[in-house]
């Protein structure tokens, strides 16, 4: 992205990483995490600023069985309205 501002009338390149809550509740998997990590490494390598814009409900822990087992998560449907 190359925004043009009063202090940078020629524009300045910015690496933007974003998530959107309207797509899968804004959660992201390891594939997305790895892409975000690569974009972050790239921005540092070329010395461009990075902006992370997120509207997220969190990670998809339910899909990571290793994490689920490590945390002893038990999924239940008792009163989902209670969080």
UniProtKB/TrEMBL annotation:
InterPro entries: ACCA, AcCoA_carboxyl_beta, ClpP/crotonase-like_dom_sf, COA_CT_N. It comes from Steinernema hermaphroditum. PROSITE patterns: COA_CT_NTER. Residues 1-83 form the CoA carboxyltransferase N-terminal domain. GO terms for molecular function: acetyl-CoA carboxylase activity. Pfam families: Carboxyl_trans (PF01039). GO terms for biological process: fatty acid biosynthetic process. This is CoA carboxyltransferase N-terminal domain-containing protein. One of its GO terms (cellular component) is mitochondrion.
């Amino acid at each position: 992205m190359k925004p043009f501002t009063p202090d940078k009338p020629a524009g300045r390149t910015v690496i933007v990483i974003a998530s959107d809550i309207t797509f899968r509740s804004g959660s992201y998997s390891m594939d997305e995490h790895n892409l975000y990590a690569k974009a972050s490494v790239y921005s540092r390598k070329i010395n461009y600023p990075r902006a992370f814009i997120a509207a997220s409900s969190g990670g998809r822990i339910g899909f990571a069985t290793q994490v689920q087992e490590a945390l002893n998560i038990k999924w239940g449907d008792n009163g989902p309205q209670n969080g």
